[in-house]
Specification:
The chain is α+β, with helices and mostly antiparallel strands and about 80 residues long. It is built from three helices and two strands.
């Protein structure tokens, strides 16, 4: 008998490692007691969840300033003054 770990997602068990076997081979699946991840809020679309995540982690800056100062923030280049 061989024991391996896997993940159960959307009604399908996926092994975490390669298993040499054949189609139709019988298996025994045992679910381990682990902390269950939190359930997503009901009636909340994926888009709304993404927008909430963006809002939660947004920094307090003007969008135009961030776009204009792209090189400064990403590459550490000097600050450049732009006309508004």
């Amino acid at each position: 008998m061989l024991s391996i770990k896997g993940t159960f997602r959307d009604g399908i068990v996926q092994p975490n490692e390669y298993v040499e076997s054949y189609n139709g081979q019988e298996v025994i699946i045992t679910f381990l007691e682990t902390d269950r991840p939190p359930e997503p809020p009901e009636n909340n679309s994926d888009f709304e969840a993404l927008m909430q995540l963006i809002e939660d982690f947004a920094i307090e800056r003007k969008i135009a300033e961030l776009a204009q100062q792209h090189d400064r923030y990403f590459y550490g280049m000097p600050h450049v003054e732009y006309d508004a």
